[in-house]
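Can't paste images in this forum, so I'm doing it all in text. The chain is below; anyone willing to post the predicted structure tokens underneath?
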Amino acid sequence: MDDRGYVAQALFDRLSGDGVPFRILGDSHGYPESAPDVVQLAVARAALDGIPRALGRFCRELDLQLVQLAPEDARAWRCVLAWTDEVGRPRFMSARICSDYCRGLRCYLRAEELLAATPDTLFSHGLIDAVESGELPPQTAAWLCSLWNEDPRSAIERVARFWRDAANVRLIGQAAKHGEWTAVRAALAPLRRALRRACWPEPGDALAHLAVAARTLAHPARLAVVFMGRESALRSAVLAQVQRDLAPLGLALFEQAEDASRAQLRIVFDAPNLKHHGDTVAVQSSQGLAPIAAAVERAVLRWLECRVERRYPAALVGENPVAARVLQFAARHRIPGVQFFMNCAIQCRLGSPVLMPYPFGIILERNVSLGSRVTVMHQASLLGEVTVEDNVRIGPGARIVGPMSGPALRIGRGATIGPNAVVTTDVPSHDTVVVEKRHKDRRTVVNV
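Text version of the structure:
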């Protein structure tokens, strides 16, 4: 049973619970037993801008990773969700969420038509999608035939709207009526040219597409990873396994002999005294193939998740005030003076944005590691070796004091550290640490 189907069904349930009007596009038969390579949804135009926030909330609730998120065109988002199965292997589900159905510069179907989901509209979408992609799998062909048989007259009228040549209309009609798509598969390229001649782009769509293209150029989705350090058969084997396991992400993986300057993430083998830091992952060959590959895959997914949060901080992390954004920018780029005037000392690396509603008096020492979607309130201090996992909230005036060396103090996922609490031991996931009320027979304030 494909767990992608369960994740897809959970996403549908979440959108329904949020009151988002949507419609599943493509062959939805089999959910939750299975899911296609790309789950396609149509939503109302008014709901499209809220999709990043909805996806972020959905991933937090199901403990998924949102590792890719980008506008595919002016009216669609494309995303990739990641998780691990019961044996620890990475799994992925890609989704395309649109309002109007556009491909390239051309808009073929409006949101109102897609949400109505009449058989002829779904037939048009499935057929255009196949023609534009240049592929018509047998499952899609069978689904198109079933839609055609529900309302042949409306379906042929739709076909004539997009293909004005009678020969093309007759070719598609015969294939859908008799279930024989061999001739259509052979003519996909001419059908695509005829389709584009029939639907010219509107000026507004062209300008919006250029804006999306410029953003994609500035923020590419592809990640380049270089494998460096001691050259060995193990290093090549790890690269090959990571390439197989993370194939849906379209990574650019190469070894040190090639141009390493274009790499965004570096995997370094057998480097003495080198620790995980920033965009560098240190591994030791003595660990063996499987543990190294698993560690590299976790690091890649984590890096991608942090990149998505940096690109869409307001939607996925929270709305930071201007002062917090300036503070974190200065901390990342080592700009002097800013932290001094805000009475802060942020020395650790900020992989993803941190929600700081009141960014004053915050101290984060060098050996502090922060996860994703962490909230740090004013006057909070994290000292020593401290690892804060995802979705943790640290209240105002809280003190988290880890050891100066050795294993780091760990704050588990989803934990809450209350105001003025002092933490010196590990906190389990989803636990809450608060300050006890002062008792008459007790002269000090202690922590739970």
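Residues 442-446 have pLDDT under 50 and may be disordered. The first helix runs from residue 3 to 17.
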